[in-house]
User: What shape does this take?
Amino acid sequence: KRRAPEAADTSAAKVQKVTDGSTTSKLGGFSIDINSLTSLAQRIITAHQSDDSKDTKFLDDCHDNGTIERQLWPYFVHLNNNGASDPNEEIAYALALLANRRGGGSGKGSGIDGGGDSQLMFVVDDNFFPSSSSITPMQRTAAFALLLKGLLSYQDMQTHSLGHISIQNEVLKFLIASYSSMELRCKSSDSNSSQRRGIIEGPLVDLVGVRLWDAIPKRKRFLEMMRDGMLKKRYGLYETKRGDKDANVGFLPGLVDQLFTIITKDDLDEGEQRAVKGYISKSLELLLDLLSYPQTRTHVASFISSHNLTVKLVLSKLYRDQSFVLFRQQVNMLLDSERMEGGMGSSTSNSSALMEKGVDRLIYQRAHTLQKLLHRHYVEEASDVVFAGVGRVTDATWLREKIGLWSENTLYDVCYRLRLVDDKDIGSSTAEIAEQLGCTRRDLLTSIIIYHQSSRQSDASVLSAAPIFPTEELLWDPHSVPPGNFSLASNVQSLSLPKLNARFLSAGDYLLRNFHLFRLECAYEIRGDIVDVVKRMRPALKQDGYTDPNDYYGGQEDTAHQDDFGKTEFQGWARMGLQLKSNKEDKQGFRIIRVDPPRLGQRFPSNVVAELVLDLYHCATSLASEWDQLREFDNLFLVAVDATTISASQTEDRKIPDEEDFSFPERFGVRAVRGVTVLEVRDEAGVVLSDPAL
Assistant: This one.
């Protein structure tokens, strides 16, 4: 219900002109001077761009004094109460900068821990704002909408400025924190103020809501609305409300276009590459978040699918660049998230309820549609696809082989009839896009049709194929297993990790995210134990103390001495680590006994059985008794160490502890890490000690 005009007038702030010409308003005991706030915002922006210690101290003082709660946020509440719709862009950007520092966003001089809700708590915080009890949740929501409008306007104004990439990075950080805090609610105990939605959820969802369909090609939009009557009704209401005004598609289409422009650039300086990589990783992180929230996924998945963004990212040069590991990991996550069981790019409101059978049914419908189209127009050229089974048509490898026999015009016409591409409706043609990506037009069209027609692995198959034990690639991956103290990872802009939200797409999505996070948490603890053991054992290169290894006696004929030289030896010892060796010359310390073939439908061996030999002769009695406690189903880790690959001194002073140092494998020669499970324990005579009958 709307309030009466008299009530609205009494709650509005009173504006009066002061003698110096500035506009001042009184709101709940606060005196808001617009000119002084603008000067303060400009000072904050200048200090953020500077590396001077005085400017860093000024930003820290702004946080300690509660500048957001006392000065910046009341300005937007005041604007909403006065019915204004044009906020100051600089004040909005200054508030976002301070909020990012509060969540550890900027990394420069920000020693404050926390993130997510902690960055947006000023919206519902009552400590600094005595009159906040009189501010309703609807007023807070409207004030936050003004904040977003000013922030996005400032980003558009600074598009052609010198530091526009850094500005957009800060805006992306604030948006990521905002979308992760959509469940924020007031702490008031009044039952009448309870809401179904969060305080800031409405403005955030509206930015990526039904308005995105104005940025989707017309033929694709018409087809989807013919399939979904509810979507057609919502879009019709949106058009009626918009009237004759120009379409406002929000920030997402511009973000996607700029992301594609940046990944296709080649002439970047070394100084710009770090900022550009940070922008790319933050953009992909925001897209992943939008696809993981049920409130925002509905229309975002359809928009990304209609523009074939994932296909373009996979075909880009950055994806093939081995040095940018984070980009490849995030693109793979985006690929899985867009095609996951909870959506498949569908625009229906109940798409999150799709299970594995529903996804298969959707894929089979697409396969039948392709076969019917080919049977009607290209039955001779594509007869193999027309009369093939559904399993064949949804197989990416088989389909790519058959598509290679089609002409390029046929391939484009098929994609055009399926509403996958449209050179007349999009900004650039498929030939121009392929040229920017550095591939041929045929490769682009083939990847698009295979992406939309091929099936994906179910969550159950992904979980069954995931290794139980972490390997060396996962243990020392800074983007998957970050340091315990995140301030040590100065080069880590984003993490390729799933996030736990208040809402999930489905029960399978909830279990899958928790499984991945639990697995990575275990990997972090295992990495610390392995580092501790390897450090104590001190691997080194075995050398002859009497001769120079480069010029030893005997020349090339002394092959026995040459074989001994270059082996790895351990100059220390560890209670939880032993070298695999045997005191018998005819027995190896490690020997693979059997490798069983894969089971039906799998690609990895079903079993790998090996024999490990532990020599406890030189161990103390207490240590040997501990190793004798090994029993069936106990877990061990095998670490392959090669001292010839050691690249740096192990004793040099380092600011980063070895447990958090991702160059540890190169410094200590760690080549591989594999987990094993004990099947049985035998003694020297081959008697099974783990037999329960003994």
User: Anything to note?
Assistant: DSSP finds 29 helices and nine strands in the chain. The CA atoms of residues 394 and 455 lie 5 Å apart. Residues 507-537 form the longest helix (31 residues). The chain has a mean pLDDT of 81.
